[in-house]
Amino acid sequence: AAAALPCEAGSYSNKTNLDSAGGCEDCPEGHACTTGIVAPVACRAGTFAFGSRNAVCKPCRAGTYQIATGTDRCLPCGRGSFCPIGASLELPAACELGTYPNATDSDGLPDCLPCTSGSFCPGGAAPPTRCAPGTFASSAKQSVCKMCAAGTYQDGTGATRCRDCDGGHYCTEGVSAPLPCPHPLGSGRGSVTCSVCKRDYYLLDSSADPADIFENPTRHCKRCPPDADCSTRGTTLETLGVPPGFWRASNLTTELHKCVASDHCSGSGPVAEVSRLRLAASGSDDRIDAAAREGCNAGHTGPRCEWCKSHSGYFDRAQRGCVDCPVASMRLFNLAGVVLAVAATGALFYLAITRVAIFGRAGARTAHRLTHVEVRVGFQPKLKVLISFYQIAGTLGPVYGVRLHEDFTRWMDIMDAISFDFLGLTYPDACIGSMRARLLISALWPCAAFLLIAAAIACHAFAQWLLSDRTDNLRRDLVRATQSRLIYWAILVAYLVLPSVSRSIFKSRQCESYDVDVFSGERRSYLVADLTVLCSADDDEYRGLDAYFWAFFVLWPVLVPLSFLALLLQIRRDVRAQRVSPVARACRFLWRDYDPAAGFLFWEVIDLVRKLFLASLVLFLDPEHGSSNMQRLFFAILVSGFYLVVLAFARPFKRSEDLYFAGTANFFLMCCFASGVVIQLCEGAAYGDDMCHTLVGFESARNASEFVVALTATMLALLLFVVLFKTISAARAPTIRLASSGRHPVLELPPECSFHGFISHAWGTGQDQTHTVVRQLQLLLPGVKIWLDVDNLDDVGRLEESVADSATFIIFLSVGYFKSFNCRRELYAGLASKRPFIVVHEADVAKGGASIAALKAECRESCVEVAPPAYPSYRGPDEMLARVFEEADPIVWVRVNAFQLETIKEIALRMLRQVPYYALHTSELAQGVMVPGEIGPRGFTGLVVTILVCRDNKGALDVAKEVKAEAQVGRRSAAPQSIELRYADVALKGSGPAAIRAGSSLSKSVSLIRSGSRLSQSASPTPAIKGRIVLLLYLTDRTFLDEDGSVARLVQAAMDRRIVIAPVAEQEPSRGGVPFRNFFQQTPQVLQQPPYKLFDTLAVPLYSSQEHRKVSLRHVLRGMGAEPCDAGFLRQHWQRLCRRMAVFQSGRGMLNVPLTAAALACSRCCLTQTHRRRINPSTADRSEVCDTAVRMASLSEPAAASPQTHSLTETELAAPRQPGLLKRSASYHEGLVVDREEGDEEAGRVVESLNLRREVVRQASNKLSTQPHRAPPPGPSRVDSHEGMAIERIVGSQRRIARIRAAQEKRLVRTRVRTVEAEPPSEEVGR
After folding, report:
1. Which of 585, 580, 615 is nearest to 499 (CA)?
2. Residue 1317 phi/psi, 5° resolution?
3. What are phi and psi for residue 995, nearest 5 degrees?
């Protein structure tokens, strides 16, 4: 057997009889097993065996040790100890500080090496260690790393140096990263702490402790003010940047003010501490310059650089800098020029109103129109509103601190001119002298102006005295007139200059405050008018202004309104009673525009106080800071809004347009003040750049300035528009005026009366009429006071007192008046009080009227009381009859509008004669009264007119003579030979071309008078008819009832010839006047129906009373085509053109087409067909054929089954009540028919065009007749004639068609029309 083998190294076994190596076990960790060992051996101290199957134990490496046995690893040697290879213990270090040992030598002792930079070596056996963050080792052989110094940091390891601290951060000692500065502090590079403010912030106090700044950053660092420059870190209050165009009062303030008016704010360099130097230099002549290191260009100083260093210059806002003062001689020249310009303008206006009448008739007419326009338009209240508006709007800058954009400086100068700030316009304030001298001149120059005016008035009165007979009465009159003129001019001057003078007075108290020290809150106030004066008790010049200010304040803003109030209190009774006393007339500027009866006599004082408050008194609100904040603007808006509401409810103006204009002006003022708020918001330094757009939507203050300028310009344009509109419509005002001057009459009341008239009437028959009289008087005579029972009767027992309280006694006579007991009481009271009687007579029996004889009989029967209580000395009916009927002719009451106006005018004229003013000035009523728009004198110019009258129309010739006489009354009346009166039967007897001149209206028609009639039997030659021809038809109860019916035949003949018919209806029963409806019974039906329709022409009523008959004749002349005598050149020619265009004047547009066509056809010997029967001219006498053709084309029987041609016969005229029918032929309705086979194409086109135009006229007439009824124009009218009103509406269209029709008729004459057929009416048309 083989020998036994030992276990391999690294394994062991204590067993026997092992047959292989697999029976050996591995040596465990920390042990060693040699070959053939029975048990593992543990490693000794200083050795180790890592893992299993170790044959031997390894020694510990250098720097490690193991004190235990049987371990698998060694332990690291601690700092400051030394462990050689195989060490079982930590040995003490052997290297010095700053060095470290190397690897262990064979002897076990290491070499000590120096420690490298960026690391440290604690000595002994410790190895080098890298420096931690926040530390550094700048050199080798360092035992420790040094900490980074304050202001540096190190964020890495093994550093040899530290980094500087970044900007905006701070670094304490040994920090590994920079620390950010707290908001809003900043720092520079390498800063130890944060003691400055970052960009866009400034340090309030540069002397503050940095530690305190760091601990309380928000208390020391403030955000940069608007418009200031804080772009540099570390900006302080003293070094705050001021950009060009801005100014600040000192280097201790944060307020920056924009130089709106000056271009000389440099904004560069440190700003002087004005607050500390201002008073110290008060003894110097140039006090501002002592503190004027505030960033202004050379030659400029003061707040916002708006003062000049030179005493010979002044700051001009228009030039935006200092300019030289005008030479001394220019001062008086400028002032005198302004005064002379104003005086010359006033003198020219005065001459234009009062002296233009001396230049002949044209001058008189112009003077009348100027006066009328002035009265109608009412320039005074509108100018007062406009001046007040600009006087207040012009204070936006000087009073409210609202500085408009520089581009609108000239417009502000215009506003100052309108506000009568003459001193500011004539010479610069700064060139006048000291503030005391300026205040004296501003407050006293109106007094000097008034003294000059007074001297001129006195010289004028003295000259009148020298040129007169120097009587005592004239002297007294001149003295009273001079006193009145002086009072008037004193009021006018005081009213115009009061706001501007008051504002000049308040300039001595108007200060503007600037912040000069944010630490102490100190502010400095400068007098705006003189920046060399401080608003302080320490300033001697400012203290010296107190006495002047209070003296002039009492003189102007206090005494002037009180004086106006005292004058109005003195005249209030006279004005309310409409008694124009000399003092009241002199003060008319204060009360004439308002309604004193409604209690608004003192409204001018109220408006004046409002204007004073807004223009000057508002300066009492915060005198130092009011111009820089919005307090004044806020109160101005409140006051303007409140006044607008009061104005809307009170309605103090007499004219409604003045009220609307004043309300608009006040609303515009509110808008201006609101825009001022916007401007201050947009320009305020306390707001950012975007605040203006964010708050109000404007991009800049310029937009708000444009809005203000637009409002003020619109106000001026609005006034011009209103004045122009009222001037154009002045002539249309339906109010009673004096015919001599065109002015409204003076409605002065006697001292003992409260009413101008007492109207007495019977309730049953005169109630409605008297109401109409009173309402018309109140409408046409504004301000008249009439006592009417329904308005003023409170106690029927006090009727007598009411009669005595009236200046006149108006009686409306109707049936039953004298039978009324109360009416007789009123009559007796009128007799007792000796009031003048104005009697109005109702003559229409159907309306409760009666004849004068019947009323006299009623008076004798009823007025029989003996000693009535109201009039104990009554002497019976004879006294009553004498006062009522014989003292003055009764005024006839007429209802037709144009004639009713004459009744109202006559009543008003008799009332005005009892006014005390006109009792002394009777010449003003000598020409009576007038109403603009009423019908005036008329005549024919450059035209021969022939008026035809029917011989059997009784009274027509007399009326024609009256018409002819009336046509010669006007200033441009016709010559006597231009109007001819002729009998119609003689004029129309010869109707051929030989008797009628070419060009007359009769040369285009054919007479209908048959040869067998009585009118054509005369063999005497007939003179030719010239010019315009008119047939005057006088309508009475017997007009168409003549024996042979010649009147109707002549009317028919005239209408066939298109002669104008002028119907005149008599209204006096004694002369044949009957109600108009009677004429429909007596007039033949043939004249009432188409194509004649006689009564479509409005008949002019003819009255017997003088005032109404004149109007009737003028209306007759107007119907004949007469022109107004006062018409201008253009109006004359326009009316002539319209007359010439109206070819068909008969029947107001009647188109008798078939008759004309038939007549033209007969004149050409053409074939005419009537009822489809052709007449051959070769088989009959030509004249008979023509006569028959014309009559057959015009007339037809009422029965359509068997129509027969006929003319007017004596039988029909003798029985006018039998129904007759005169119709147009079917061709009028269906148009002219042309035989195409026998006629040529040209004639066909002409007739077709004529038919088309006729259809257009007919459709227009039908359409307009369905429209609502429109009130007729002034003049006679028949209310129940709807068809006549329709004709009035389409008269324009008919005139144009008439002109076209005339031209086409000429073409028909020239055209060879072979056949003109008048198609007969069908059965339906006949029915």
Report:
1. 615
2. -100, 130
3. -90, -20
Are 1250 and 1301 within 8 A, CB to CB? yes
DSSP conformational letter for 733: -
Contact 255, 266 (CB under 8 A): no
Please give the structure tokens belonging to residue 498.
Answer: 């009061």
Residue among 309, 337, 344, 556 nearest 427 (CA): 337
Given a contact cutoff of 8 angstroms between Cβ atoms, the answer to whether 831 and 874 are in contact is yes
The predicted-structure confidence for 330-357, as pLDDT tens digits, reads as follows 655 665 666 666 666 665 555 555 554 4
Dihedral sign of CA atoms 822, 825, 831, 833 in order? negative
With the CA atoms of 592, 596, 599 and 605 taken in that order, what torsion angle do they form, in degrees rounded to the nearest 10? Answer: 20
Calpha distance 108→608 (Å, rounded)? 121
Q: Which residues pair with 1032 in a beta bridge?
A: 949, 1062
With a threshold of 0.85, does the pTM exceed it?
Answer: no
CA dist., res. 699 & res. 705, Å (int):
12
Read off the amino acid at residue 630: M
pLDDT (tens digit per residue) in 1018-1057: 334 445 666 788 999 999 998 998 888 889 999 998 988 8
Q: What is the pLDDT of residue 1135?
A: 61
Residue 1210 is predicted with a pLDDT of: 32
Rounded CA separation 64/125 (Å): 12
Contact indicator for 100, 126 with CB cutoff of 8 Å: yes
Between strands 945-949 and 1028-1035, the pairing is parallel
CB-based contact 172:195 (threshold 8 Å): no
Per residue in 742-799, pLDDT (tens digit) is 788 888 888 888 899 999 999 888 888 898 899 889 888 877 889 988 778 877 888 8
More confident residue, 17 or 302: 302
Closest CA to 70 of 46, 91, 93, 86: 46
Could you read off the pLDDT of 753-763 as tens digits, one per residue? Answer: 889 999 999 98
Tokens of 883: 């006062």
Instruction: Give the ranges where 872-1001 is alpha helix by DSSP (H).
Output: 877-881, 897-912, 916-920, 956-967, 984-987
Q: In whole angstroms, what is the distance from residue 480 CA to residue 478 CA?
A: 5
* Angle value at C-alpha 581, between 579 and 584, nearest 5 degrees: 95
Torsion, Cα 1031 1032 1037 1039, to 10 degrees, reads: -30
List CB contacts of 787: < 8 A, sequence separation 6 or more: 755, 757, 758, 759, 802, 805, 806
DSSP 886: I
> What percent of the chain is helix, strand and coil (3-state, nearest 5)?
45, 15, 45
What does the alpha-carbon distance between residue 1095 and residue 1081 come to, in Å, rounded to a whole number?
Answer: 12
Question: Which residue, chain included where needed, has tokens 């403030």?
Answer: 222
- Could you tell me the two tokens for 987? 């004029």
CA angle 1184, 1190, 1193 (to 5 degrees): 130
Six-digit token pair at 26? 């591995």
CA gap 732, 744 in Å, rounded: 14
The distance of Cα 1275 from the centroid of its chain, to the nearest Å, equals 37
- Per-residue pLDDT reduced to its tens digit, 885-906: 988 889 999 888 788 999 999 9
Which candidate, 176, 157, 164, 237, places its Cα nearest to that of 204? 237
487 contacts 457 by C-beta, under 8 angstroms? no
Closest CA to 34 of 19, 53, 16: 53
DSSP state of 557: I
Number of H helices, E strands in the chain: 43, 51
One-letter identity of residue 154: Q
Pairing verdict, β 58-59 and 47-48: antiparallel
Compute CA distances 148 → 155, 177, 288, 711, 1052, whole Å: 10, 11, 56, 72, 136
Q: What is the mean pLDDT of the chain?
A: 75
1318 by DSSP, 3-state: which? strand
Phi, psi of 374 (to 5 degrees): -65, -40
Q: How far apart are CA 27 and CA 42, in angstroms?
A: 10
